[in-house]
Prior knowledge:
It is a single chain. This protein has one domain (6-82). Strands 2-1-3 form a three-stranded antiparallel beta sheet, with helices on one face. By secondary structure, it is an alpha+beta fold. Helix 1 (6-13) runs antiparallel to helix 3 (46-56). The chain starts with 5 loop residues before the first helix and ends in a 7-residue tail after the last strand. The model has no long low-confidence stretch (mean pLDDT 94). The chain is built from three helices and three strands. The chain is 29% helix and 27% strand. Strand 1 (24-31) and strand 2 form a beta hairpin.
Amino acid sequence: xxEMTLExxxxxxxxxxxxxxxxxMIIEVKAFDNEPEIIINPKENFQAKLDYYAKAYxxxxxxxxxxxxxxxxxxxVEAIQDVW
Length: 84
């Protein structure tokens, strides 16, 4: 299970698996009381997205500019069918 913090997301994103084996970054975001949305990014976007999350989110994975938006799950996978 992933450590559900910004540090955990960055650590997983910098892991050997994410750098060499994973093809997709999966981020599940919950806004307000809506059902979570799933964001899927290809390997080519990993570093840019990790840089963005590091700047835009608190360590508890809440968006700094809107506390009603939070990352509630994340993973890096080789294939889309591997998504939780």
